[in-house]
Structure formats: structure tokens, C-alpha cells
Amino acid sequence: QIPQISYASTAPELSDDRRYDFFSRVVPPDSFQAQAMVDIVKALGWNYVSTLASEGNYGEKGVESFMQISREAGGLCIAQSLKIPQAKNIDFDKIIRQLLETPNARAIVIFANDEDIKQILAAAKRADQVGHFLWVGSDTWGSKVSPLLQQEDVAEGAITILPKRATIEGFDTYFTSRTLENNRRNVWFAEYWEENFNCKLTITGSKKEDTDRKCTGQERIGKDSPYEQEGKVQFVIDAVYAMAHALHHMNRELCADSAGLCSEMERAGGKRLLKYIRSVHFNGSAGTPVMFNKNGDAPGRYDIFQFHSSNTSTPGYRLVGQWTDDLQLNV
């Protein structure tokens, strides 16, 4: 009965309050993006689509959610539901041939990893099907450029989805000013320093075998090395604050007369703490509300993009809508 708050786990089965009753998360479950994708398909007036999933938890559960939600919504038929196996030499041309067996189902809803997206687009191109398929991609496709390289024409018009996330400026200021001197509390920092600047610290037990360059200690993150904020920083901060708010409210109610931790709170236990976690409501690091539903899930907030490469001077992904409980799409 130990409450947990996750900043990254999006598997739909974690919403099951019978099995994971002490689990909460500040990221939305993938079933919410499946709902968003059903809403997109319906908004575009498509009623006959195929699905494609990479074998494994993410792909299969995503498609499963999509199919279940589309059944409940009605008015949407699934032509085929294909799986890309996790094998070495997969026949992607065969998968394209299968999808072409239902030529009227041009829209393909795809929950797949980068490499599978890349290979399926390449196979569509080899089959001379540029312009045939209309792709609706989940957040593993998102706004990535790498799976589309040299085959932008096959991905033209693809609609993709990404959880809304913000860059936290204060974190960049903080992190890029960390040095070996001012960050001694982080036990992994020296190892990170060597890896990041590709140099060896003079301390014994250096893990860096592949270089003889010595670190000066004067290197600076972002100046002497490329730096980009990890995409989940916002959620890590929100998870920590959610726990802090819960403990704060619990402390105020149980220890009203005393400062700090009182015996009432010491013996409160996980069940009571969970109650406080589930009732937090505050503005998070990106200015959006942090809260949990009865299953411990965060609200779903997604940006919707469309990929354009032809007839435009600036190829790339355009923001065409968003989904927060319901769809706003600029058709």
C-alpha cells in the first residue's frame, strides 16, 4: 500500500483501479490518445480504416483501445488489423500488399515504433503507392523527422499526435549552470560529466575507457556539449509537486496543532496518503492543471499535427488542432 506517482508510464492497463489501486500518474494513458485518434478519424468523415501495430505492449494495446473505442462510438468499420512482428527480417512489402487488399480503406491508424514507421513508408513507396495511404500516427510518430527521411512524399498529409508538453526554462538555466563544484550531491554527476564531454576525470575508478582526454572541470554544459531538455522534465516536476501538495494538505489536517510531523501523520499509512494525492489540484510547471481522475490518471492533452512536404516552402509538421477531452481540429 505504497502510493506511487509516475511521470512517464502511459500503458492503459495501469488505469485498472482494482490491480493498480495505489498508482497515479501525471501523464495521460495511451487510451486517451486512442480516443483522440477515433475523434480525428470521425471528424474527417472516414468510416472505413485499417490499423497497424508494432508487436508488443505499446502498439497492441494502443490499437486495442482504438478498436474498442471505435466500436462504442459506432459508425466506424475496421477493414483490417495487422501486426508488425518483432522479428529480424520482416516482409514489409507483404504488409503493404495485405493493406492493399482492402483498397477503399486508405486511412491507416498506426501505433508503431520509429523503425517500423520508416520501413512501412519505404515499402509503400516501393509498391508505387505514394498518395494512396492516409496515415494517422500515434505519439511514437509524433513530430519526428527521422522516420520520413528520403520518403517525405509517402508521408504527405499524415496526421500525428503528441502529448502537450512544455519546455521549462528555469530548468535549463539551472542545469546548464551545474558544475562538478556546485553539484556534489548528485552521485552520478561525475560519470555524466565524463560521458557528456568525452573526457576522463583524474579521480580513480573512471568509467571512461574509450578516451585519454583529461577533463579540466571548466567545461560547461550546452557550451562545450550539445544540450537539449529531456521531454519529460515537466512531468517529473509535476509528479514531485503532486506528492508535496498531498503531504502538505495531509500535514495541515492531521497535525493542525504542531509544526512538522506529528504522530497522527506518522501512523497514517498509504491508504490515507492516497486520498490526499487523488484530491490535489494545482497549476503545474507548464501552467496547466495537475489533477487525477478516479483511476489516478492525468487529463489527456494532445497537440495534433499534419505533415506537409509538397506545395510548401517550409516542409514539416503544422499544428492543426488539439485534444483536451474533446477535439478541436482546423479541418
Automatic annotation (TrEMBL):
GO terms for MF = G protein-coupled receptor activity
Q: Which UniProt keywords apply?
A: Disulfide bond, Glycoprotein, Membrane, Receptor, Transmembrane, Transmembrane helix
Its principal location?
membrane
Gene Ontology terms: cellular component: membrane
Record-linked SUPFAM superfamilies: Periplasmic binding protein-like I (SSF53822)
What protein family is recorded? Belongs to the G-protein coupled receptor 3 family.
Q: What is this protein called?
A: GRM7 protein
